What we know:
Elements: E1 2-6, E2 9-13, E3 39-43, E4 50-55, E5 59-62, E6 72-74, E7 76-78, E8 90-98, E9 105-113, E10 117-130, E11 133-146, E12 153-160, E13 162-164, E14 179-180, E15 184-188, E16 194-198, E17 206-213, E18 217-221, E19 242-247, E20 253-260, E21 271-277, E22 286-296, E23 307-315, E24 327-335, E25 348-354, E26 358-366, E27 373-381, E28 390-396, E29 399-400
Parallel strand pairs: 1-8
Antiparallel strand pairs: 1-2, 3-4, 4-5, 5-6, 6-12, 7-12, 8-9, 9-10, 10-11, 11-22, 12-21, 13-14, 15-16, 15-18, 17-20, 18-19, 19-22, 20-21, 23-24, 24-27, 25-28, 26-27, 28-29
Amino acid sequence: KVHVVRGDVEQEIVYSSSLFESPSDHPAHGVPEGAGFAGFRIMAPDLKTDWLAFMGASYFRTSGPFDQYGLSARGLAIDTGLSTPEEFPRFTEFWLKGGGPDDADLTVYALLDSPSVTGAYEIVTRRTVTNGVAQIKHTIDARLFARRDINRLGVAPFSSMYWYGENSRRQIVDWRPEIHDSDGLAIWTGSGERIWRPLNNPPRVMVNTFVDNDVRGFGLLQRDRDFVHYLDDSVFYERRASAWIEPIESFGEGEVHLLEIPTDDEIHDNIAAYWCPREPFRAGAERRYRYHLSWLDDIPFPEELARTTATQTGLGGRPGQARPKGVRKFVVDFQGKAFKGLGREDGVEIVVTPTRGELSNAYCHPVVGQRNRWRAFFDLAATGDEPVDIRMYLRLGDRALTET
């Protein structure tokens, strides 16, 4: 159901096939009057394109800063990434307020429902356009009521797609060099650490957890904005939005979860990210989460840290010499003002800590001819099929120069 609120008066918009233009033999003509809607879209002022859509379960997304839909946000996720079936809560009823020419904000009130939980959402959206670039920000107030015990609660979840990129060239089977809606998970921890986790298309379902207290922000980003890296002039992956969560009230203790599912095509959302509270959500309990959700080009970043611009892998060893078997080389580029004035002899060093395996050939240096850009190298040999988790950053003395 969809309602429009004007002042203190609400009016339900009752479904009728007469509201839509469709061919005479379209099956929608068989849908009964008052059946309800699949969702809704908010149109641009010219009524030619839309910039916000709520469609399916509790999914919603915007066209972001470059007028191109990509990843989706969700109201809530339940039991994502477990061996048991995932539960998909859905928004069952909406009230729309504002959003007209004289209103700065559009407010969406939504009821959420599923077998395990019910909830009420207030989603206040502000869209501004500066020099042709849109800035879209939601302020979300979610109140949840558990009907039964929930094993894994996913707060402020995202769904995205990653097929292959620069760090997974062995998986390239399409003519385009890279195909993904997002290329990394960014986290700003409660302690202030900045983390960048490049996305993968793994051989089996994988879940990574990042334990934290009072997380300051997290989101799925599309950092690579170079058309030449995608070469797709029909779906424009370089224009896909980044999405970023910042709690208004503390999320407390918990974990950021990253779920990666194998895929062999771009039509599947195989990436999910969300906040999982440490304390279980028991039947009869009530919770409230308030946070900002922004759709943007890139997140604000401190100048004292350099950010990751590329992550690539290949054969270990050195070119021109026999390559050792079972050794993988990792090459990571960082860029930022943190490197200003620093050269090869100034003591910048690489710090690498894998969960297992043998490290070799670890070093870093400025990239020749590139301003404030450094490159880190290391080789890793690890036997067996179990995954290896690796943390790496560059430092000068006891000061981190880059994100992790």
